[in-house]
Protein: Sugar kinase
Amino acid sequence: MSLLVIGECMVELREVDETMLVKTFAGDTYNTAVYAKRCNPELEVHYLSAYGGDAFSLAMNKQWQQQQLNTDLCVYLPERNTGIYNISLDAYGERSFSYWRKGSAASELMQYLDTKMVIEKSSQFKIVFFTGITLAIMSDKGRQTLLDLISSLKQKGCKIAFDPNYRALLWNKQDARNWIQKAYDISDIILPGLDDHQSLFGHQSLAELLEYFSTFNVSELVIKCGELGVYGYTKGTHATVEHVPFVPAKVQVDTTAAGDSFAGAYLNGAIEGMSMNDKLTLACDVARMVVQHPGAIIDEKIELV
Ligand SMILES: O=C(O)C(=O)C[C@H](O)[C@H](O)CO
Structure:
């Protein structure tokens, strides 16, 4: 049984000093795929994306292989390029991003993907994961084709997991709200951040989020509340909430991929059949390790927990 992750990977640039940049590869869904695999090297993790014919795309593809991801479903678009993003950090290691990704290969994935072929393989995928960023980079037609594909995979028995990962730079708020709600409608496992919901829907508290999600048919709801910790709810047991308090990292170097690594560890735990408390604890531990190192993907020699 495997995990299928759908989205975009890019060139990641980060400044070493005023004249030097480090180049690696990252993107929210890719980060999740990598950390799920690192948590359990036995787990088959499929990464579904598109890559171009430029030199960066080819190097990126090599990196996907090195991370032991299964890329059989990926689409090659020789006329397109890979996207690029840059990480800027403040004095507390809080990150912000700049993007050069319009028209990237991944943004056109759904125009070229053989969705029937993916549906035929559905029995392999226990969980299918995508994010608000996966939707944000696509045209409306691409977004609808993606949601149709996800719905078909759900009908075939795959569990659907979704993280809204709202990035205001990538789309307007109204579009983001509409499409993220459509994604919630078909998701079994939802991993929202309170901050995303504050920006998108004006929700100010955990209680407001719970009220909002009470109308969706979610089997696992994991709400990340920053310094208030994380809360996990399992369908039918909304009264027996699991709460894991926030424990700060020894040092916070770069918060890039904190949420993505959390998702990777959590989904790995879900596939392994862990309890809600164990999944949340593992996910928090992994995210805490990731923020202590620069960039989205930390050196593989570093033990995650
Ligand atoms: O912001 C994006 O679109 C990215 O995917 C880049 C980062 O790796 C990601 O946001 C980290 O969560």
